[in-house]
Amino acid sequence: MKICKATALLLNYKRPENINLIIENIKSQSIPINIFLWNNNNEDNKKYPVDLQINSSLNLMCSPRWLMSSYSESEYFFSLDDDLNFKDLKVIEDCVSYATNHNCAIGYQGVIIGPSKEYFNSKHLGQNHFSPNVNNDINVDIIKGRFLFCSKIQLREINFSNYKKADNYRIEDDIIISSKIDNKIIPKFLHNRFVELPAPHALQHQPEHKQSRQESLIKYYLKKNKFIL
Question: Which domain covers residue 70, as residue numbers?
Answer without folding.
Answer: 6-222
